[in-house]
Amino acid sequence: LAARSIHVVVSATSLRLGRFEWRLRELRNVHFEIPGWGQRRGQRAVIVVETTLGRTTRVKVPNAVDGLMAAVRAAGVPVSRSGMDSWWAS
Hints:
The protein has one helix and seven strands. By secondary structure, it is mostly beta strands. The strands form two sheets. It has a four-stranded mixed β-sheet, covered by helices on one side. It has a three-stranded antiparallel β-sheet with strand order 1-2-3, with helices on one face. A hairpin with a 4-residue loop joins strand 5 (44-51) and strand 6. The longest helix has 9 residues, at 66-74. The chain is globular, with a radius of gyration of 13 Å.
């Protein structure tokens, strides 16, 4: 479990996901891609961080992001969410 976890910090001025860190004022959007209902067990969510300069960073995190999503939204950063479809749903 420890090998699959990632250090996350949301402060009044910054967001840190593992080895990546951004100032909140530099963020345009934080998008959460959540595994579909048939894929939840053992799958990881993907967080896509987009800066105001247009740079994007994708970070895989354990699939328990509701609290993180709420914290980022409460910090004033726009948040979006989508489901990741399974390969057999295409």
